[in-house]
Amino acid sequence: MPTPKHLAIIMDGNGRWAKARGRGRFYGHIRGARVARKIIEECARLKISYLTLFAFSTENWLRPPEEVQFLMTLLRHRLRRERKTLMENNIRVHCIGDLQRLPQDLQREIKSCIQETDKNTGLNLIFALSYGGRQEITQAVRDLCQRVKNGELEPSDIDEARLQTQLDSSFAPDPDLIIRTSGEMRLSNFYLWQAAYSEIFVTHKNWPEFTAEDLRESLQYFAQRERRFGRTGEQVAQVIT
Ligand code: FPP
After folding, report:
1. 68 ligand 1 Cβ < 6 A
2. I want to staple 175 with a disulfide (CB 3.0 to 4.6 A). Which of 8, 29, 78, 119 is the partner?
3. For residues 90 and 121, what is the distance between their CA atoms, to the nearest angstrom?
4. Residues belonging to the active site
């Protein structure tokens, strides 16, 4: 069964899940973090090479300051508490996004987590934090313009491959499968460049109720997709046979 080399997840619906149970949004995030841990371990077990978790978007900075602060503290605690689990599961941590905007203590935690896990050879776990696809592409274009201005590049040197190397996520292949929870059919500024040919699996379940079984269901959906990358079905069949 073909499995995605790179799986990316838009974890949505923590707030709605909590509200439906008469609880506050923070409770939803705590339960969401627990689910993230389970799914990370499951992906490591399934030998998926790359997993991106969209944990905090550029737009999430617009939430009430108490919620932003709560999410930052939650992320810092989880990164510290799960260090042992990451090492035991041979998981290497990466982060993409505008990390400079994060609180200093979270930046320090991220740096030390990246350093400690950088010899691990199993799952590459990518946290998208303060991440926005448009911002990432804009920054890449700005960097390329600077290199042209410095005389290092000609405008004609700029092609898709060159732009791709300037993206935060350039070390990872494009995601093969993107899962989104809570039923919304949109990308919400996530991996805009990288998602060009990604398969998309949307479930109505909110993130805190997403299970390893749901993950397996999404992988089965992926395995049944015919990925044509713009070719005809017949051409794809010829390449495979
Ligand atoms: C979406 O639910 C979730 C977030 C914005 C934050 C994601 C964070 C976590 C799952 C917790 C920390 C994660 C890790 C990996 C340690 P929402 O608040 O947008 O829900 P709503 O759409 O129902 O309001």
Report:
1. no
2. 8
3. 6
4. 12, 60
